[in-house]
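ingest -> fold -> write
write: protein_1
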Amino acid sequence: MPALACVDSYAADVFIPPSPQPSSTAAAVDTWSPSLSSSLYRIDGWGAPYFFANSSGNISVRPHGNNTLPHQDIDLLKLVAKVTDPKQTGGLGLQLPVIVRFPDVLKNRLECLQSAFDFAVQSQGYESHYQGVYPVKCNQNRFVVEDIVRFGSQFRFGLEAGSKPEILLAMSCLCKGNNEAFLICNGFKDAEYVSLALMGRKLALKTVIVLEQEEELDLVIDLSHKMNVRPVIGLRAKLRTKHSGHFGSTSGEKGKFGLTTTQIVRVVRKLSEACMLDCLQLLHFHIGSQIPSTSLLSDGVSEAAQLYCELVRLGANMKVIDIGGGLGIDYDGSKSGESDLSVAYTLEEYAEAVVASVRFVCERRSVKHPVICSESGRAIVSHHSVLIFEAVSTVNHQADRDDIQFLLEGDDYEEMYSAVMRGDQERCLLYVDKLKQRCVEGFKDGVLSIEQLASVDGLCEWVLKAIGGSDPVQTYNINLSVFTSVPDLWGIEQLFPIVPIHKLDQKPGTRGVLSDLTCDSDGKIDKFIGGESTLPLHELESGGGRYFLGMFLGGAYEEALGGVHNLFGGPSVVRVLQSDGPHGFAVTRAVPGQSSADVLRGMQHEPEMMFETLKHRAEEVMHTKGGGEGEDVDEFGNVAACLDRSFHNMPYLATEEVLSMSNSLSDAVSNLGFYYCDEDGFDYLSA
């Protein structure tokens, strides 16, 4: 191993292995365009028809899908400016991260789903109709559910519930919906759940109690007699058909929910004995989420249609076949059925396959065509919401030239330099490994200082860079909690499209992984769509320019599943409608993210008592320290105000503008409320 010679940091000329110089072709200014970024990030694949890279290099939203007029596009960068700018300058003064909801997209998704089934029904001569429901578990947010009921009213669109809070929510919302809309009651049931569903019948709601377990039937029969309500009953069947991906694990004979054929026969017999066989009107099944192909879909629907016809033969008053969820979306833009991230069909092809399969079986069995119902939550809400967050810093392991204070002596140095100039990677890598090992041992023995060790690391990095062997991947620290905002990513390794929402007219200069704010090694994103382990990114501006990223297609499940790891609460949320006003959009509602007090309260702490405890401690310290009375009063006031702001601010990193604004607002408003906004600003409303 070559010896090391310590040299004075002020030594005269020393040679540092140069970084590789770009060729004249590479040195030329690369031409880049938003269309190239669109291809790089597959935006046209997963984003169409709602998201695209505009001519300014920003992501824009087409709120009405293919029906969006050019002047109706919403530029996400302009929207972020409106949301984050201080109120004094016309903004809303909210902190990132923020979830942006687009109700217009939600409306368009509903219209497209209904249109696809309407076309399939009409073109195939199907003698009934399609009537869907939205499973509220996908996103239980009040405004999401209310929007779906309102937008879907013309289609008799209903809701699906799987718990007692969800059925209460659904019953309340459907009081303002179409009287013909279904309320499908799934999930495990006790007496209270069944009573609520039967109460829905008394309230003139079209509740259907779907039996998930055989023993639930006894509850339904008993309580319906006691409450004097004639129930409408459905049953969930365990099909043999299932797909092999992750999302297929809840289907098939071993599935968590549903009745076997043996149990179905017993249910029919028991209903007949109770003179309630006419109450059995719906058959429900679920092949699994993200059904990859229409061939698998057709197999499952055909099997279920046979069961439906058998129930008709046994005397049940069958009217509805509920095909469950499974309508997938294309997370990676590949249009492939080979993974859980994509599907190999369009919305129209999905509807066509369902209608054709039911029609074929029913006509062969001479059974009247049933109403077709689906529970397509993921396909309805995924596109309408965008999570926007900021990259606040990067970790770059490359050292500066001035750090290098160690060189090789004599011939050893010349040999190393020659190996670098020859591009002898093998010899250089061997040298670097041995050098690092020896220096670490020297550091452990106390021979080398931390400055000297850093200098050796710098020299090694220069050598690796010169031969193209250094790791070009940078770590971008993001103002986000993966556990709170993208729980499916770490929980089941679900991937979502992540893209810079601006600078798409510039070529990304590096590749990176994303590291969140939590003190957890799992709090990172190092897997991306397309099978990539890094994401093309732009260098952060040294002058403090901000860099915004968006996570798309996360409108289903992520908010409902998010936790409070490290007590990072939920993000801010804004609701944005397309508008013909000066900005092209109107923020109709803005809700600040959870404050530190909110998340502490959620873990059964008492923020008010904590604040009083800390304030009392500050008072004691000021008294013990002594000093001028006026000075103590001022300092105590500053400490109390700082504590108050910290309890009321979000746990995420804040810009100076947000902190200064919170100073002026902290005495004026409580954290328990929301802002009602329009294009001209916002007014605070107490909860």
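write: protein_2
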Amino acid sequence: MADSGEYEGDDDGSVRELCANGACMKAAEVEAKLDEGNIQEAESSLREGLSLNFEEARALLGRLEYQRGNVEGALRVFDGIDLHAAIQRLQPSFSEKSASKKCRSRSDSHVSVSQHAASLVLEAIYLKAKSLQKLGRLTEAANECKSVLDAVERIFQQGIPDAQVDNRLQETVSRAVELLPELWKQVGCDHDAVAAYRRALLSQWNLDNECCARIQKRFAVFLLHSGVEAGPPSLGSQVEGSYVPKNNLEEAILLLLILMKKYHLGKIKWDPAVMEHLTYALSLCSQTSILAKQLEEIMPGVFLRSDRWNALALCYSAIGQNDAALNLLRKSLHKHERPNDLMALLLAAKICSEDCHLAAEGIQYARTALSNAQGKDEHLKGVGLRMLGLCLGRHAKVSSSDYERSRLQSEALKSLDGAITFENNNADLFFDLGVRYAEQRNLSTALRYAKQYIDATGGSVLKGWKLLALVLSAQQRFSEAEVVTDAALDETTKWEQGPILRLKAKLKIAQALPMDAIETYRYLLALVQAQRKSFGPLRSLSQIEDDKVNEFQVWHGLANLYSGLSHWKDVAICMGKARELKAYSAEMLHTEGKNWNFILTYEISNLNLHLLHAWKVTSLASFNELEDLYVYVMSTGVMHEGCGQTHEALRAYINALLIEPSYVPCKVLVGSLFSKLGPKALPVARSLLSDALRIEPTNRKAWYYLGLVHKDDGRIADAADCFQAASMLEESDPIESFSSIA
């Protein structure tokens, strides 16, 4: 065994001189013997000239052949090394590290010699694995590489120490740790690759930060894209109290977040691919809020600030924080930044298309995007036209005149139809067109697009089935609509069936089959109970908001059904259940006011107290709670109206309008009440009903009451037109508003 020195050679493939134990010899002498095929003579020359043992001479000789590019020759030399025997001889030497203090100097010297010897032997086996890999013998290569790591673990039973480790030995170990999982992947043994990755990251190999980062990144990519479920780590490798990933996605995200933390601490260099993979992984599980936090923590200068703003806007938009997203996009699209950034323009237009008060701004974004969709970006014209159509349609809902609304609706349909020429397979475009045509009561065209949407999505999206059923119900084809709901139930998961089951119950009612509707509601309640049990007794607010079956709506719908059958005892039970779920119980009080005048009486002063309390909590209330509040107030008005208390009912309706001025059902009811207060109140009634029709032009009740107002005012021709519109709308009235799925 060598007693000192290093085995020197150039890494560029040309070995000029071999040195060990204070002696040197020309590489050319050994190469000449190898060229003649005299491996034994070359080995003997090395052993005599450099005082090496058999394994060391063979290892040095094989490395020389490998560096010369003679892979097959190197493999023949490496085959002669008995790794097991060499490791057995090296192990006792390393055990002397724990010698007594008075022998420490001698022990450290001996360990240094042993590390040099181990380095040469282990490097030989590593190069043997590389040779086998180049020859396509991947399984053998993986096994040889694994034997290197097994040998290191036997030699360093407590792990490789942080200091006093031979550089070449550490380099060999690091390369072997990196190579093994890649070899198993090339073989196709994915589970062995997972085990190799985890072994590399969980064992003490004394890897440097960059090497460890490369392994973590490759493992994360493998978990994300291999298609193989790795399963959780073995119990033996789990640390008590530590987080244990449950699946591939969680483990990949954990690895990528560790890499991001290392970057923030300055341990590794910035790698944009890590952020790309993390973006993909967090998007898969809808955790874009975490992604936004990561983007915010990245130091300035890594990203262009406009790119960072755009990425953050996309994250915030995905979690429903549209105001924050739009503010970021406005900064990005400023004239001093990148005002013509096509992706930012389209995203801004999309956000604006969801709010009628922002639709006008969205129209400008969409038109700018269309003007910039040229050359290589011309394929995005279809997206721009679709966004323009959605914004125009949304803006039409707040238009101040009938002419303007009609013009905007016409332009919206024209833009959506134009988008089809660019994206004739876009399922979302089929849905948008179906809803728009349905709202304008062009039911045959709406039906065609609804069917195309279901075909394009394979029936996997619930809103497509709902649109088709509503269009059929508007055509009074209730039995066919019911067939559609049955098909939807077959194609959707149990937790998504709530809206379809409610639709089916309403179809049963429309067909005068109340008992069948009751059975459907009972099944809905069973689904509610199962949904509640699946989350356990303690549910988070997000889980409650994500419920696909709204229990309150089920009880309220069942109460309305029983009231139509005059089953007052059952109505009382259902209303009691509904009252337990919501304090204000808006829809419940509507039903009570309409059907149970003998059960409940309310003083207007109590109503005002409710309103005062409501204004105090609106800053904390969700949108649904606020909506329930003004429906509650309106329902109180219905109750008073049912009791013949016209002025009290009117006062309640006006209070409701103060909460939500654009609430159409309330405007219609207030207008109908004013029409009963005499000739002086008719202009007020006409104004309210006209305003309701401006917001919702297809509200048949508004047309009917407006006709009554015109009739009482002596405008017979106008009254006839209104009655005709109400009659036509009644013939094409769906069982639910089309806006419920828009």
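write: annotation protein_2
The beta strands are 17-20, 23-26.
Residues 1-15, 97-107, 537-547, 583-644 have pLDDT under 50 and may be disordered.
pipeline exit 0
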